Every structure is written in C-alpha cells, then in structure tokens.
Amino acid sequence: MTDDTAAAPETISYAESMPPYTGSMPSAEVLRIAMVEQLIDWRVITADSPVAHAMRCVPRHLFVPGAELDRAYAQEPVVTHTDADGTAISSVSAPGVVASMLEQLHVQPGQRVLEIGTGPGYNALLLADLVGPTGSVTTVEIDSRVAADATRTLAEIGPSHLNVICADGDHGDPAHAPYDRIIVTAGAWQVPATWRDQLAPGGRIVVPLRLNGLTRSLAFELDDDGIWRSRSAAECGFIPIRGDGGVAEQNTPLGPAGQPLVVLRTDDNRAINPRALHDALDRPPALLWTGVSDAWGLCEHLDLWLADLPSFCRVLIMSQATAGGLAPLQHSWGSMGAATDTALAYLTLRPLGEAQPGVEIGIAAYGQDAELLAQQVADRVHAWHHAGGGNGHLLVELHPASGSGPLPGDTRLTIAKGDLRVIVRVAQPVPR
Question: Is it the case that residue 20 has pLDDT exceeding 50?
Fold first, then answer.
C-alpha cells in the first residue's frame, strides 16, 4: 500500500466518541473486530488502513435490526428490505465487498463524497468516518421506506456531516456538487453524465457496472485525453439500480412449475423463450470436457470470454435438493453459460485427482442442439486458455459513443451504454 493510504486519519472518529452501546456491545465489539481480522487475513484490507479503522468502529449490527449478532457480522450480505413479492430491494452488503469498494474509492479526510444507494445506511456511516468532521457525505436513496429507516438509524448515531436524501440516484445530487468521490452501491447498467458532471476535477467514481450481465466494481478516473479509465476492478454482485437509469435483468425459470431447477438471467432486456427449453432439463446432459484445467476453480476472467456470445446468460441454481439431478454447476450459486431457443449449456468442473490438484473445466448442455452449443462454449474456454487464462489484468474504458477508431488488440467486449461506448480489455502482464 502506498504512503498516502497507509496511515489512518489523525482525527478521532465520531464512532469512537459515541457513548457506549449498552445492549450487546461486548459481543458486538468482539464480532466486529473478528470480522475485520478475517478481511485482513484475506488481504482485502490491511490492518492499518483507514477502512479497517472505520469498520472496527462502526456498529454494523445496528443496521440489520432483527438479525442475530453473529449473522450481522458474518461474511455475507443481509437483506433488510423486500418488496410486496418478497424480492430484495435493499441489503447490507457482505463485509468483503464493502471493504473492497471503499479501498477502491480511496477516500481522504476532508473530502466531499456522494453515495448512490443509501440502503440501511451502514456504508454511509463508514464514509462519514473516513472523511472525518472536515468532510461531508451526501447519500441518495430512491425508496422512501428505505430512506426513512436509514435516516432514523443514522440520526441516532450519525454525525452532522452526513445527509440522507430521498431521490432518484441516477440524477446524483447537484445541490451539493462537486464531489471528490462518488460511490454507487447498486448494480448500474451505465455511468450517466449526471454522475460524471458532478465529480470534481481529479475525482474518482466507484461503480458496480453491468457488462452484458457480468458485474465488476470499477474505480474510474478521467484522463487528460477525455477517456474514463478504470484504476482497479473487483468481482461483485448487487441489486440492480432502480429509477431512470435502471435496466431490468430478465429472469427465466426452467423446471417444474412452482419449483424451477434453475433460473436463466440475461441482461440488456434480452429475453429467453422458456417454452422452447421447457423439456430440455428432462433429457440427460451432453458433457464435453475441455482438457483445460484451473488450479483453484476460480476461472478468473473466463466469464468475459463467454459474455460476448449472443446467447450468454447466468445460470442460477434454485435449490440443491430440487436440482440434484442436474450436472454440477460451477459454483454453489450457479454458473456462467449460454441459452438459445434449442439448448442450454453451462460450465461445470471435476477434480483432476489426488496426484494433480485443481479442476478440469467442462460444459454440461441440455436440449435439442446441446452438442452444438456445448462446442461453442468450449471454443471460448480454449480461447481463454490460449490467451493466458486468468493471468490478465482487467481494464475498462468509457469512450464517447460518437467516437471511432481501432480497438486495442486485447479488447474483449464493446458495449453501447447511453452516451458512452464501453471497452472491456484483458491486458496480459508485461514480461520482465
């Protein structure tokens, strides 16, 4: 870590000066410290970083009322608000995601910060600790119920330099602009001009940007040539942003009515015909093993090699019990794959054996044209492998949509988003 990020602010945080919480503070404090120590062990943060300092101070459990203390400080998100259908609309993100994005944001004492997506308010309180009493935090929440709950919680423990606004975050908050830092805590389909215009010269914006259905937390800065370039990238997942800038993801369930085995999720309003694939999962899968291995099974950046397939989708497993007859999916939550009107294919893994650690990457495919789609996905796996596998460094650039010119040779995706053209690159390390 560089010198300008290693030292914690010299000012005492307001969280340390708060009166002690008399409910379950001893247990909460122990769990909070343990949570931070685990993030340090995972190398998400360092022990002396300002983010670690803030997360040791801010009482996360106060933002998840009703949750047991051990769940409040577990390394997982906690849903706090749902809509009438039970769909999550707000949550406290997993500590690792929170810490990683705050490190990307690189907040300094005295800065002015805009947060898009207040949620329960936990992240806003961390930001207030990071900027200190000489800075300010404006946080915008579109849902009036969520905003009211966050305002109430923050009013009890928050500082005066933290302001909650109920509005559509797609428009930012011009009244308090410009901002030194902007952070978005919802899955954004684009980076609208309103956010870019409200950022001060030399500022930084961190946004979980959707890229053909994939999400990466990207830290953008504007370079002298007028191009926004990412300074860092991290895998993440977020509830999609709502409001004027929202673009709905499409969810297509497959399997028995009321008990789907999987849900196929697509982006950019690309729909899948569920009738065409209704009986696909009733047939045995076509399994194609690629001969490509991965030491840890992470298959980093492989999703980017699949994402430019017109048929790309995410395959979300609904239940280990009801999906027991399916070929294993890549992760506990599901896998990356592809779906057409005649077939579904997704990544699967199998261990190489005791003598050789790691896994082999395969494709499980179902439907009338299973073998054809499996081969298309396998071709992308081989292309990823020949390009260096997961050794590449992810770079994302935001160009004016009207711009033209040759694309860099390491370009993986180009996506039109509003007034921007997004260029996704995977650059290989320069040999020494």
Answer: no
